């Protein structure tokens, strides 16, 4: 009976440890997603997107999705989305003042959808997502890469 009780305690201890680890990973993922969302919003370059874009939405969710939507003045909407579990690398082309951040995926994992276009609604896939940014220091890019990779690892651990 003592052996059974000891095994039961060990099993309960291991199970509670797994539950705590799961919650801590979830918390880290949420923190990183909120941080990345804020940084991308702070550095988004409205001037570089063009006068024909009426508004934009840029979201990083706690489930690991990056979503970017552009609404044009003529009614056209472009929507881009990918999961950070497919994230491969990032590139930045431009200067400290302004440039474009390219988020690259392992394959053609970025969903691209176009609505209300003269050519019709178009669904396709891409291997990158491009976001116009301003005031980007090299440290900011390093920080982005670190956070993106950490989100990728946390999603893989789920």
Detailed description of the structure:
This protein is of the alpha+beta class and 158 residues long. It has one domain. It is 39% helix and 36% strand. β6 and β7 form a beta hairpin. α1 packs antiparallel against α2.
Mean pLDDT across all residues, rounded?
A: 83
Structural class, judged by helices and strands? alpha+beta
**Which strand-content bin applies to the residues?**
35-45%
Distance between the termini: 36 Å
Q: What assembly state would you assign to the polypeptide chains in this entry?
A: single chain
Supply the number of structural domains: 1
- Uncertain runs: 11-25
Shape: globular
Enumerate the strands of the largest sheet in spatial order, edge to edge or round the barrel: 1-2-3-6-7
Number of strands: 8
Signal peptide: 1-21
Keywords: Signal
Fold topology:
Blueprint: H1 2-43, E1 53-60, E2 65-72, E3 77-83, E4 87-94, E5 98-105, E6 110-115, E7 122-126, E8 128-134, H2 138-157
Antiparallel strand pairs: 1-2, 2-3, 3-6, 4-5, 5-8, 6-7
Helix pairs in contact: 1-2
């Amino acid at each position: 009976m003592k052996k059974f009780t000891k095994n039961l305690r060990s099993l309960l201890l291991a199970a509670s440890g797994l539950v705590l680890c799961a919650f801590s990973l979830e918390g880290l993922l949420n923190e990183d997603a909120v941080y990345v969302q804020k940084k991308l919003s702070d550095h988004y370059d409205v001037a570089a997107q063009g006068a024909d874009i009426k508004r934009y939405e840029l979201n990083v969710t706690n489930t690991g999705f990056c979503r970017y939507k552009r609404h044009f003045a003529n009614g056209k909407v472009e929507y881009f989305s990918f999961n950070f579990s497919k994230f491969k690398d990032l590139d930045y082309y431009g200067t400290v003042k302004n440039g474009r951040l390219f988020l690259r995926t392992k394959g053609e994992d970025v969903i691209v959808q176009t609505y209300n276009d003269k050519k019709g609604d178009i669904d396709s896939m891409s291997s990158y997502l491009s976001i116009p940014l301003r005031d980007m220091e090299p440290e900011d890019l390093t920080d982005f890469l670190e956070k993106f990779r950490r989100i990728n690892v946390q999603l893989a651990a789920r």
